[in-house]
């Protein structure tokens, strides 16, 4: 298919009225995905009302606008199921390998992969690239449990080698166990929501610096507020002040900036409790626990 056609179809779908299967009750746990209806494909992208809806879209809660070329490992994923579509984040870790959340790709029939984008509305943005994959390219963790989002990680294997550039780069995985406490500093990035009741995705990439939360207090919070048992392969960030990932950010990276200026993907955005704005901690798949599985099933090398 023509590149412009693929992008046009995806954003026409995004222009439809949003619905979500997520329960916004604070006592429920919620995957950080944003579901969009598979309708309204006959609308014209040039329609000013549609363009306004998209341009006024959303981002990471209380996030900052990124710079062009910043977070070049971040990937956008337009995921098409039989009767609906939705948007998630992903991370490029090898020339043909993207990591995302397993809950993002269950039942996917087609995935549009957006690499090197800053403004995802700019169809011909310099340094950007779009490709697509089918179900045969997706490998969820064999012990993924969708009812509780256990082992929430999947590999997307591309059919082509991606040419790296200033706007498209890979990121390293941790070589040892990740230690997270209340002083641990991380960065999250994506095109997800900024408010619970707003439009599905933002046009421009956003990011936020966020702190970790110790596992014991995070686990206790989820048990008390949602009757949800966290797992040892989860790590947690503090949502104080209403900051953190939201729907549309699922599958994106939790990144630690090292003392030498390099970056490491330590976590993968998975889920949170109800509203994104209540200041609840968010849960991530701990990448140090899945390093061996990723290496065995991809082209990733240190």
Task: Describe the overall structure.
Among the domains are: 106 residues, Beta Barrel (Thrombin, subunit H), CATH 2.40.10.10; 104 residues, Trypsin-like serine proteases (Thrombin, subunit H). Helices cover 14% and strands 28% of the residues. A hairpin with a 5-residue loop joins strand 14 and strand 15. The two termini are 34 Å apart. The longest helix is centred in the N-terminal third of the chain and has 12 residues. The N terminus is likely disordered. The protein is globular. The strands form two sheets. Strands 1, 3, 11, 12, 13, 14, 15 and 16 form an eight-stranded antiparallel sheet that branches. Strands 2, 4, 5, 6, 7, 8, 9 and 10 form an eight-stranded antiparallel sheet that branches. With 302 residues, the protein is α+β, with helices and mostly antiparallel strands. The chain is built from five helices and 16 strands. Keywords: Disulfide bond, Hydrolase, Protease, Secreted, Serine protease, Signal, Zymogen. This is Peptidase S1 domain-containing protein. It comes from Clastoptera arizonana (Arizona spittle bug). One of its GO terms (cellular component) is extracellular region. InterPro entries: Peptidase_S1_PA (IPR009003), Peptidase_S1_PA_chymotrypsin (IPR043504), Peptidase_S1A (IPR001314), Trypsin_dom (IPR001254), TRYPSIN_HIS (IPR018114), TRYPSIN_SER (IPR033116).
């Amino acid at each position: 298919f023509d590149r412009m056609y693929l992008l046009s179809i995806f954003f026409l779908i995004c222009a439809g009225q949003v619905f979500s299967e997520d329960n916004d009750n604070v006592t429920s746990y919620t995957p950080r995905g944003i579901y969009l209806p598979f309708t309204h494909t006959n609308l014209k992208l040039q329609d000013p009302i549609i363009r306004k809806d998209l341009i006024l879209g959303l981002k990471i809660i209380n996030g900052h606008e990124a710079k062009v070329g910043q977070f070049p490992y971040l990937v956008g994923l337009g995921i098409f199921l039989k009767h609906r579509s939705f948007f998630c984040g992903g991370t490029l870790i090898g020339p043909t390998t993207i990591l995302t959340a397993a809950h993002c790709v269950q039942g996917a029939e087609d995935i549009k992969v957006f690499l090197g984008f800053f403004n995802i509305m700019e169809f011909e943005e310099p340094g950007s690239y779009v490709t697509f994959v089918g179900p045969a390219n997706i490998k969820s963790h064999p012990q993924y449990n969708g009812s509780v989002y256990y082992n929430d990680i999947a590999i997307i294997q591309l059919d082509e080698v991606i040419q790296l550039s200033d706007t498209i780069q890979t990121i390293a995985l941790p070589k040892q166990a990740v230690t997270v406490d209340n002083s641990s500093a991380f960065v999250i990035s994506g095109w997800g929501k900024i408010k619970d009741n707003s439009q599905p995705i933002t046009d421009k990439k956003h990011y936020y610096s966020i702190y970790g939360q110790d596992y014991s207090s995070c686990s206790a919070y989820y048990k008390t507020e949602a009757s949800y048992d966290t797992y040892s392969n989860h790590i947690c960030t503090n949502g104080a002040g209403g900051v953190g990932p939201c729907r549309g950010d699922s599958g994106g990276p939790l990144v630690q900036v090292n003392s030498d200026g390099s970056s490491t993907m330590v976590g993968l955005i998975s889920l949170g409790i109800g509203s994104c704005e209540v200041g609840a901690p968010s849960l991530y798949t701990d990448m140090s626990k899945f390093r061996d599985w990723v290496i065995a099933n991809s082209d990733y090398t240190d």
